[in-house]
Amino acid sequence: MNTPISPQQCGLPHAVWLASRSPRRLELLQTLGLNVTVFLAQNSPEAEALEAPFEQEDPLVYVQRVTQLKLNAALNAMREKSTEQGLSGLVLAADTTVALNGNILGKPQNAAEAFQMLHSLSGTTHQVHTAVAGAWLDEKGTTQAIRSIVQTSQVEFATLPETFIQAYIASGEPFDKAGAYGIQGIAGQYVRHISGSHSGIMGLPLFETSELMRLIQTAAQSSH
Asked: Is residue 129 part of a domain?
């Protein structure tokens, strides 16, 4: 009988807190064997408001700023509860944005926006930036070892047939995804080439995130 590899054998913590609503990020972390607990500091409208870009904001600056805001919100909420519930451990937050010609393509609000985004991505190469930030929260509610990374991938789309675009929008899949598509879904058949991290395009680059968790855990342990 094969014995599964534990996170500890890879230098990872046994458990993490994930400050994200994304089921894809949860699934990706679980592939590492981690015990993942989702912690949401805000309701959905508050979280969406947090993701609002500034006018003409650079996509790379935007994704890192929003990720840090998400982490701070989670840490503050956990700190408030830590005295009564003993919340502690490694906390992760992340954000993904799609950029085309230096412009941010967020989550489409309606079918017209989704069509415009998908039409603009058709037959072009765009960037997908995913930022990840993490910290260790100890039993006293003290934040230690804050670290962050950002990973950028280049994604080349073949020409998207208009019939596909219309059917894809009708399926509802584009509406909770930056850039109006998910590479792990049916739209992936039109991705001609990627340069970077497939898991990063999905929402959490596993290599960079694993390295980040090791750094945070090591720094937290050395501070004791």
From this structure: yes
Q: Where are the alpha helices (DSSP H) in the chain?
A: 23-30, 44-50, 59-85, 111-121, 162-171, 198-202, 206-222
Catalytic residue annotation = 95
Q: DSSP 3-state assignment of 69?
A: helix
Question: Per the domain annotation, does 204 fall within a domain?
Answer: yes
Query: Within a 10 A sphere around the Cβ of 179, how many other Cβ atoms?
Result: 28
Give the CATH number of the domain where residue 15 resides.
Answer: 3.90.950.10
Cα(134)–Cα(72) distance, integer angstroms: 10
Q: What is the pLDDT along the chain (224 residues), one digit of tens a residue?
A: 788 889 999 999 999 999 999 999 999 999 999 999 999 887 767 777 788 899 999 999 999 999 999 999 999 998 887 666 668 899 999 999 999 999 999 999 999 999 999 999 999 999 999 999 999 998 888 888 899 999 999 999 999 999 999 999 999 999 989 999 999 999 999 999 999 999 999 999 999 999 999 999 999 988 76
Domain that holds residue 87: 7-222
Please choose, from the candidates 119, 116, 121, 115, the residue with its C-alpha nearest in 3D space to the C-alpha of residue 98: 121
Tally of domains within the chain: 1
On whether residue 1 sits in a domain, the answer given is: no
Q: Give domain status of residue 193, yes or no.
A: yes
The pTM assigned to this predicted structure is 0.93
